[in-house]
């Protein structure tokens, strides 16, 4: 139970972070992107997502800790930022 609670906290933080990244991206790109939001990440920690589940669209930024890419999840079409 504690494990599932911690998983949910991590997922909530990740969703908030991804929404902030999409919002920042909206200020730089066309208005159509602004209506997109990341969907909540599945809270079941047993389901693993791999990079093969995504289509990498383009780089968003790069920095000292790596690059961030805009990606579309193949199954749902949702947009994500991937580091």
UniProtKB/TrEMBL annotation:
<dbReference type="GO" id="GO:0005524">
    <property type="term" value="F:ATP binding"/>
</dbReference>
<keyword id="KW-0418">Kinase</keyword>
<dbReference type="GO" id="GO:0035556">
    <property type="term" value="P:intracellular signal transduction"/>
</dbReference>
<keyword id="KW-0547">Nucleotide-binding</keyword>
<dbReference type="InterPro" id="IPR011009">
    <property type="entry name" value="Kinase-like_dom_sf"/>
</dbReference>
<keyword id="KW-0723">Serine/threonine-protein kinase</keyword>
<feature type="domain" description="Protein kinase">
    <location>
        <begin position="54"/>
        <end position="83"/>
    </location>
</feature>
<protein>
    <recommendedName>
        <fullName>non-specific serine/threonine protein kinase</fullName>
        <ecNumber>2.7.11.1</ecNumber>
    </recommendedName>
</protein>
<dbReference type="InterPro" id="IPR050236">
    <property type="entry name" value="Ser_Thr_kinase_AGC"/>
</dbReference>
<keyword id="KW-0067">ATP-binding</keyword>
<keyword id="KW-0808">Transferase</keyword>
<dbReference type="GO" id="GO:0004674">
    <property type="term" value="F:protein serine/threonine kinase activity"/>
</dbReference>
<dbReference type="InterPro" id="IPR000719">
    <property type="entry name" value="Prot_kinase_dom"/>
</dbReference>
């Amino acid at each position: 139970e504690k494990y599932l609670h911690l998983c949910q906290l991590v997922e909530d933080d990740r969703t908030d972070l991804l929404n902030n990244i999409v919002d920042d991206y909206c200020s730089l790109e066309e208005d159509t992107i602004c209506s997109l939001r990341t969907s909540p990440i599945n809270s079941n920690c047993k389901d693993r997502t791999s990079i093969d589940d995504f289509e990498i669209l383009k780089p968003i930024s790069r920095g000292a800790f790596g690059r961030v890419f805009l990606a579309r999840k193949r199954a749902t079409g949702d947009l994500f930022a991937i580091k």
